[in-house]
Amino acid sequence: MTLSASYARLPESFYARLAPTPVTDPRLVEFNGELAAELGLGLDAADADALAAIFSGNVLPAGAEPLAMAYAGHQFGHFVPQLGDGRAILLGEVLQASGLQRDIQLKGSGRTPFSRDGDGRAALGPVLREYLVSEAMHALGIPATRALAAVTTGEQVRRDGPVPGAILTRVAASHVRVGTFQYFAARGDVEATRRLADWVIARHYPAARDAAQPYLALLAAVTARQAALVARWLHVGFIHGVMNTDNMAVSGETIDFGPCAFLDAYDPQAVFSSIDRSGRYAYANQPLAAEWNLARFAETLLPLIAGTPEQAVEQATGAVLAFAPGFAAHWLDGMRAKLGLEDALEGDRELAEALLDAMHRHQADFTLTFRRLCAAATDAGAGVRALFTDPGAYDAWATSWRLRLARERRTPAALALAMRQVNPALIPRNHRVEQAIAAAVGQQDFTPFATLHRALARPYDDRDEFAAYADPPRPGERVLRTFCGT
Ligand code: AMP
Ligand code: MG
User: Fold this and answer.
1) Where are the domains positioned within the chain?
2) Rounded Cα–Cα distance for residues 71 and 80 (Å)
């Protein structure tokens, strides 16, 4: 594994250079051999000790120029001018054969100048959660940072009580966040903002370089990717939980899987995160939160946009306002696909909304409703109605759905097959994630984690051995709250 380091070529104000703090007894929990191969890392998957040494930070790969990135961020609406990697180290970057460049970062690798009161470490539970959920998002086809490895450190970290320490190796298109731009903008450092913008354009949005106004094109491109991303979240019932500007990657990947959760029964106002008391990041508020973050991003770019300050504001505002229609179009496209509709017809939005409304009123499980709907396209008795506390509410909706399906050109079988490719059978259900974590942390039993991980790798397939993972929680199993666990 040989790394390059383009971020380390940026000015010294962008980061603090330091190596990970070694740990006493690193042991490999999981290694993502498929991802390692895709990245061309040339690592020997059989040599667990060598992998544990690298992914604990005890041994640095060739070419590594380790650093902690500086960033700021709005946390629940309040601006914090300095956050930064308080427990993460960017080891460097890999250039894939495809020409794509990706970051390799250790999370939980020790204190940095950005740690404030934190210990710089990560606990095993949150590491396993990020591993499972980020990989599940990828398998679902949703842009997300990836998990390359998880190791335990052999050290305890103190959270509510002592818990095993661990380190996650995260792979990302990059780790530049809206908050990275805010860090320089808040300091009035226009030159640094420009350097960062140029780096981001080169890395993620090369077409913007040739636009009449590259920084405006950057803003428009980031806005477009976020609109697509958040629509995808809603389509699978994902609730990020902590959409602060420091947790929004400008690449358009889902990043930071702290208190995230998935809907069980459909409820647009669902909130799981223990720290989200006002419901700012509730399921259905996520598009608004993303647009708010993009407005903060736009503010950082104003000095780089041509014309008078008023003209810059007007143009940037225009770019951010494209979020809402972009999101609405992606949302509707995805909902059409979920309902088996290929053609775009008048009334489709209302049809989708009517189903969600009935699901909400009658507590239907989000994932199961859409999965069983795939079978209902060919078989009237597919068991969807039983998911509603009043099955008649589904029947009434299904009558209009079938009328609409009759206008489709595809055969019912073809339509059902297409629906199965967009309505997952398996998502990382909150209670399954918690069970996997509890077994690993409490009994050093990693079998539930490994099994769940295997189940989630092919979310659109019905496989008998994983059938139970499609089930909603029983009343006593329901997870009501999630915690950052930092
Ligand atoms: P997060 O909640 O993970 O988005 O982190 C918000 C900020 O807190 C970032 O600057 C993190 O680096 C920092 N942070 C979170 N946990 C720790 C920790 N255990 N030690 C030091 N810094 C931390
Ligand atoms: Mg974060």
Assistant:
1) 7-172, 178-331
2) 9
